[in-house]
Amino acid sequence: MEKNKVLKLGLPKGSLQEATFRMFRKAGFNVSLPSERSYFPSINDGEIKPVLLRAQEMARYVQDGALDCGITGNDWILENKASVERVTDLAYAKQSMNKVRWVLAVPQDSGIKKVKDLNGKRVATELVGVTKDYFKRVKVNVEVEFSWGATEVKVSAGLVDAIVELTETGSSLKANKLIEIATICESTTQFIANKDSFKNSWKKSKIEEIALLLRGAIAAEEKVGLKMNVRKQDLKKVISRLPALKKPTISGLSDDGWFAIETIIDERIVRQIIPELKRAGAQGIIEYPLNKVIY
Q: Which residues, 6 or more positions from 161, have their beta carbon under 8 angstroms from its beta carbon?
């Protein structure tokens, strides 16, 4: 391997770490940490040099060229006003890489019902720049201060009047007796690249290969494969019950009058469709998990 053929990859430490490692493994990259305190994961690809960083810092280091590429949220790209190449969106429905929202929240009993009621008030958040831009757009004068954490506690304790906080389900806000009055922004997980690195033919090819495999792994989430055998006279009836990804694969068996069908369907409907397929004449039905689906 040539010395310059090394891709510096940033992986997010914290809430996205477990989901990111799992998705990389599904994509074919065995990523693991030698110890809990290590910031340098091992990976079964000698052309990739990974490092763990907070998602909040990733866009800045990618923009500066300290990293060739990395994984972070779109919110932190906006917060850092980073000029980077957005290679692909990695949002998916499971774990913690799905779409999240930054919401403006106030105590239930505060009497604050709308954004304009916060004029002259104090707001705490980790997403300071985006929050300031939001209030500037809606022409409401507030004092925005940076929060190092435990943001919900600050508003509940009366230290600030409102918070802008990340939420997926809203359950944490409800537990702290807070209500949402506005959405500041939405964010999904992004695979980003340094613009100069993306102009390098080898690095661009390597980054796009990783992105392709990650998208394939993500597309396989919540889908399963189905195989079955069907008599010729039942073929049309069985196929009509298959919501295939495109069209099912049909091949003849050694026994005349029998066919094998293979297809991909959403996992959420498999328990409903298998009995229907059986009643339609399908036999030897096999369900199996998928690692990657490449469109």
A: 106, 110, 112, 118, 121, 122, 123, 155
Look up the pTM and report it. Answer: 0.84
**pLDDT tens digits along 129-180:** 999 999 999 999 999 999 987 888 888 888 999 999 988 777 778 888 899 9
Q: How far apart are the first and last CA of the chain?
A: 31
